[in-house]
């Protein structure tokens, strides 16, 4: 996939079929859209193009209402790459961009990005003038030689509702990992730099890498999780358990993300670790003392291993098909 960062002088070659959105999470509903994009691209011999923003528009337009995000820009681009989309244009979402009316925005797409066909949902709205809707876009399109067609509604549902980024955010806040997996078509994951903590973990026999993820990234519900942990960009992936919480046993702290990797004994400070959330084991608890916590951690380890073994077996079954 060709990734292009928009600038005012941009003049792309070739004619495109495009769709526009944040696509936070690149969930199954989004991928259904990209399939339609690919079909149209083949049918009309156009370049399949996703137009997205470098940040969530709400972070500029109304920061108080901007939700924590399922994916960073890097994660979104990587996931988009895997969909087979040919081109992705990333628009820096500035105040100026936010001020563009839908018609001006369409003109930009037509003149600079070569968009000949725009695919949009009936209820999708873009541009400063939120009053404009699908029939207006069709009319504007006619004036600038751009076809505008409606996307088929999302056919992937969870509890009879179409999958959406906000639904996945709610499910993560509830710790409902199975449903999250269903909506995303994969496990939720996050990456963080390993920073130093209070040096208690090593003393109780469970060293934990304290992760510092992107500040916009959504954290799943507080509690203890079975995770796969990958060290660095292409380091090993190891079974692990993770706590998201406040460590009430040791007096409480601001939210920390701590991961203990099984069968590992090395220095992770300064490295990045990516965790893939496979199962939620329990809520965080306050224990009477460190040895009571330690006993629980031993049980967590065996519970986590059971969940991760089942996950590995399920993967093998899928891959072996
Ligand atoms: C899998 C796991 C589960 C944990 N569960 C709890 C818990 O229920 N209650 C709690 O107070 N701390 C819990 N902790 C956090 C430990 O208190 C924490 O790892 C310890 O304080 C070490 O902190 P440090 O890395 O800053 O030294 C858990 C840690 C892990 C890795
Ligand atoms: N199995 C392991 N899982 C996680 N971290 C480990 C492991 N073995 C060694 N480490 C190292 O130990 C550090 C954590 O030790 P800990 O005493 O919990 O200190 P801190 O409070 O700074 O996190 C990690 O950042 C990592 O560098």
Automatic annotation (TrEMBL):
InterPro entries: FAD_synthase, Riboflavin_kinase, Riboflavin_kinase_bac, Riboflavin_kinase_bac/euk, Riboflavin_kinase_dom_sf, Rossmann-like_a/b/a_fold
Protein's UniProt keywords contain Phosphoprotein: no
GO molecular function ontology, one term from the record: FMN adenylyltransferase activity
This protein's record includes keyword Transmembrane helix: no
Alphabetical keyword list: ATP-binding, FAD, Flavoprotein, FMN, Kinase, Multifunctional enzyme, Nucleotide-binding, Nucleotidyltransferase, Transferase
EC number: 2.7.1.26, 2.7.7.2
Residue ranges of domain Riboflavin kinase in the record: 183-309
Pathway where this protein functions: Cofactor biosynthesis; FMN biosynthesis; FMN from riboflavin (ATP route): step 1/1; Cofactor biosynthesis; FAD biosynthesis; FAD from FMN: step 1/1
Superkingdom classification of source: Bacteria
Catalysed reactions, semicolon-separated: riboflavin + ATP = FMN + ADP + H(+); FMN + ATP + H(+) = FAD + diphosphate
Annotated Pfam families: FAD_syn (PF06574), Flavokinase (PF01687)
Cited PANTHER family: RIBOFLAVIN KINASE, RIBOFLAVIN KINASE/FMN ADENYLYLTRANSFERASE
Function in brief: Catalyzes the phosphorylation of riboflavin to FMN followed by the adenylation of FMN to FAD.
Family under the similarity heading: Belongs to the ribF family.
Protein name per the record: Riboflavin biosynthesis protein
Organism, scientific name: Xylanibacter brevis
């Amino acid at each position: 996939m060709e990734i292009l960062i928009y600038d005012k002088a941009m003049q792309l070659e070739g004619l495109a079929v495009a769709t526009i959105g944040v696509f936070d999470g690149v969930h199954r509903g989004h991928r259904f859209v990209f399939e339609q994009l690919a079909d149209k691209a083949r049918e009309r011999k156009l370049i399949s193009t996703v137009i997205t923003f470098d940040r969530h528009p709400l972070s500029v337009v109304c920061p108080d209402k901007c939700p924590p995000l399922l994916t960073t820009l890097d994660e979104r681009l990587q996931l988009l790459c895997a969909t087979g989309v040919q081109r992705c244009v990333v628009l820096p979402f500035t105040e100026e961009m936010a001020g563009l009316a839908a018609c001006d925005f369409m003109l930009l797409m037509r003149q600079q990005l070569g968009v000949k066909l725009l695919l949009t949902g009936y209820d999708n709205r873009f541009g400063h003038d939120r009053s404009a809707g699908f029939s207006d876009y069709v009319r504007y399109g006619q004036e600038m030689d751009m076809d505008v067609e409606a996307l088929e509604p999302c056919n992937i549902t969870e509890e009879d509702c179409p999958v959406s980024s906000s639904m996945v955010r709610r499910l993560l806040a509830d710790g409902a990992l199975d449903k999250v997996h269903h909506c995303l078509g994969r496990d939720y994951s996050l990456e963080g730099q390993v920073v130093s903590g209070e040096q208690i973990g090593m003393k109780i026999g469970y060293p934990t890498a304290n992760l510092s993820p992107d500040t916009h990234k959504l954290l799943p519900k507080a509690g203890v999780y079975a995770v796969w942990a990958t060290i660095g960009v292409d380091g090993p992936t190891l079974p692990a358990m993770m706590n998201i919480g406040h460590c009430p046993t040791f007096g409480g702290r601001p939210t920390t993300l701590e991961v203990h990797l099984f069968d590992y004994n090395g220095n992770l400070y300064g490295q990045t670790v990516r965790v893939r959330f496979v199962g939620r084991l329990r809520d965080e608890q306050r224990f009477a003392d460190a040895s009571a916590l330690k006993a629980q951690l031993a049980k967590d380890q065996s519970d986590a291993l059971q969940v991760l073994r089942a996950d590995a077996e399920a993967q093998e079954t899928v891959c072996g098909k």
